[in-house]
Amino acid sequence: MRIAIDAMGGDHAPQAQVEGALAAAKEWPDTEILLVGRPDAIEPLLAQGKPSNVKIVPALELIESDDEPVRAVRRKSDSSMVVAGRMVKEGEADAMISSGNTGALMAVGLLVVGRLKGIERPGLAPVLPTLDDIGVLALDLGANMDAKPEHLLQYALMGTLYREKVHGMKKPRVGLLNVGTEAAKGNELTKAAFELLEPAPIHFVGNVEARDVLERNCDVLVCDGFAGNILLKAMEGAAGTIFKVLKEEFTANWKTKIAAALMMPGLRRVRKKMDYTEHGGAPLLGVNGLVIKGHGSSDAVAVKNAIRQARIAIGNGLIPALADEFGGK
Fold first, then answer.
1. Confidence label for 63 from pLDDT (cuts 50, 70 and 90)
2. Which of 105, 223, 234, 242 has a Cα at 20 to 30 A from 139?
3. Which CATH superfamily is domain 1-118+286-329 in?
4. What is the pTM for the complete model shown?
5. Is 250 helix (H, G, I), strand (E, B) or coil?
C-alpha cells in the first residue's frame, strides 16, 4: 500500500512528518511512504539515510494556515496538499494524510478527490478520548457548519462502517448529540434526524448529552459540524485549563513541588488519555478516497499513528465498503 504525506502541512512540518514517516517505514516495510513537498526542505532531514520504502514527491507550493481554502486549492495546484490529493484521485496513493489548513483539506477532499456517489456532505470524524481509552468516533466535527437530517443519517451509517472496519467493533452504538436524552428534545434538526435514525439499520441508542461523552455512552456520536466543533473545542479548552491550573498549584511552594514530582508519571498518563490525537488523525468520511486530517500541532508520534490508522483502513477495505453502502462509485 502507498500512503502520501503532506510533508509541508502542520505546525512542525516538515520535521515531524519526516520523522513520523521514517518511524512508520521502519515498522511497516510493506508500506510505501510518499513524502510530498519541497525536496530542499525534506532531503536534509533524510541525511542519515532514506529507507527504500520512503520516496519524495516534489511539490513546490505551500498552502498557508491563513489562506482562503477554496481559492488556495484552485490557485496552488502544485502545493503539497493538492498534489497528495491528486495522487489519491489518480490511484497513485491509497491514502493521504495532512496536518495543514483544515478548510483547505476539506476543499481538496471535495474538489480534487471528489465525493463518493450517494454522499451529500462528507464529515470530519476524529476519535474523542474516553475514560476507558476506547474512544468515541464523532462526526461531523467541523467539515460542514450546516446540515440536514439526511446528512446526519449518512454520518451515522458512515461512522458505523468505520467503527466496524477500522476498529473491529461489532454493532457500534450510535448516539445523537442533543440537549437531553428524551426523544422529543432538541431543535428542528435533531428532532427530524431522530426520526430518521430510529428505523435505520444501525444500533441507535437515542439522544446523548455532551457531559456523558467521556464515559462512552455511545461508540459513534452524530452531530452537525457547528455543534460538533464547539464540543471539540470545549473539550480541548477544558483539558488545557485543568492542566494549567494543576501546574500552577503544583509549583506554588516546595511542598507542592515535591508532591508534583511524585505524581508526575500519573499526570502524564492522564494527559495522554485526554489527548485525542493519540488515536491518530480524523478521517474525512464520504470522499472517494482515504483522506486523514492530522492535528495542526502533530508531532512525529501523531504522524506515525495516522499512518497506522490509514494502513488499517486500507487493509480492511473501508472505501470500497462505503462505496457499496451508498451505491457504488
1. very high
2. 242
3. Isopropylmalate Dehydrogenase (3.40.718.10)
4. 0.88
5. helix
